[in-house]
Amino acid sequence: MAGNTEPLSPRAKLAVTAGKAAAAVSRAAGRGSGSVIGGRVALKLDPDLLASLARHLDVILVSATNGKTTTTRLIAEALRAAGPVVSNALGANMPAGITSALAGGSDAKFGVIEVDEKYLATVARDVTPKAIALLNLSRDQLDRAAETRMLAEHWREGLSGSKALIVANADDPLIVWAASASANVVWVAAGQEWKDDAWSCPSCGGVMQRPGDDWFCAECGFRRPTPTWALSGDHVLDPHGSAWPIKLQLPGRANKANATSSAAVAAAFGVPPQVALERMYSVQAVAGRYDVVTFQERELRLLLAKNPAGWLETFSLIDGPPTPVIMSVNARGADGTDTSWLWDVDYPRLAGHPIFLLGDRKLDLAVRLEVAGLDFEVCESLDEAVQMAPPGRIEVIANYTAFQDLRRRVGN
């Protein structure tokens, strides 16, 4: 039965009430949703609140470098076929934000929770998840997150004793290393376009061999496991070999991969692939990502890309030249202050596009594009860039805080 069968303690109830009050004050002051400050206040009053709020839920955790917000949303939509869902749909994915989300879900059956990579093991310990989806690991905020091999090792240690079903991407060696110490793993062939963080074996440090879609280490024998779910073109292949069509409004191969992992998770809770995939079709945008908005009588498609792997996937789904592209990069706390990752992005793929640069670190980006031999214009504002752009829909690609700045400017 959905609903909290075990009442919260007086202390937990007080913490929830105080957290909601703090969030309301934050919203009234125009400082965003208030979910983070609300969660911080609540956890200060009751450090065990997250565990208390999760006790009545079937919790599913989702973690990755890229795609976790979208996958969380897809899983949540699929599981609504089996009962009410509470989720941190707006991407507040550290303990405070997760606490705020769960505080609003007393009648839910499922808790579908996106978790920042750094906090996965901690949150898993607190909420005792039934399932954990692990999608990918690649270089990200170099000044904040650990090096990818260290992060995979941290996950491996943190999840080794978990009783949760681990739904893991068999095509990412770092994910396989992190998941393979767990007792109950479902392997998904979701693909891996970005491979530059997985050329050395996470088990022994040897050179990884990558013939075709396979991978293995010739030195220690660590190799790609046999998947039971797979993305095949526009279809999900289930463990019985049946092919189910993927019909998404979200663009790109990466989102088909996200849908494949989501279908595998949903099946573990009794939702058939056909039902799960049909429900995912309702998702048009995720926290503003992929939205097409009208601004200054022009159509802008808003795309989020935060690291080299994310930019690579984004380049694969934008319209071809001569479509204009606006790129905005910041380096604030939430982005990571180190922009050296710009040099790992394959910007020459943008040849032929009119390019316009924005953001706090537009000059860092300009230097990178200059070296890549691309033509571009540096602009002071979105308004200026849109006015300079030639006709047609504009692709707007931004990293995290730059994306939020752009959404505020276009009123989205």
Write down the overall mean pLDDT: 93
Weakly predicted, low-confidence segments: none
Which word captures the global form? globular
Ends distance:
37 Å
Largest sheet: 9 strands, mixed
Strand-residue proportion:
15-25%
**Total number of helices:** 14
Class derived from helix and strand content = alpha/beta
Radius of gyration from the alpha-carbon trace, in angstroms = 21 Å
**How many beta strands in the DSSP annotation?**
17
Task: Order the strands across the largest sheet as they lie in space.
Answer: 2-3-1-4-5-6-9-10-11
Helix content: 25-40%
Short account of what is shown:
This protein is an alpha/beta fold and 412 residues long.
What does this 3D model show about the protein?
The protein is α/β, with parallel strands linked by helices and about 400 residues long. The protein has helices at about 10-30, 35-45, 50-55, 70-80, 95-105, 120-125, 150-160, 175-180, 255-270, 275-280, 310-315, 360-370, 380-390, 400-410, and strands at about 60-65, 85, 110-115, 130-135, 165-170, 185-190, 210, 215, 230, 235, 245, 290-295, 300-305, 325-330, 355-360, 375-380, 395-400. The strands form three sheets. A nine-stranded mixed β-sheet has the order 2-3-1-4-5-6-9-10-11, sandwiched between helices. The chain has a six-stranded mixed β-sheet with strand order 12-13-17-14-15-16, with helices on both faces. Helix 1 runs antiparallel to helix 2, helix 2 (about 35-45) crosses helix 5 and helix 7 (about 150-160) runs parallel beside helix 8 (about 175-180). It is globular. About 50% of the residues are buried. The model has no long low-confidence stretch (mean pLDDT about 95).
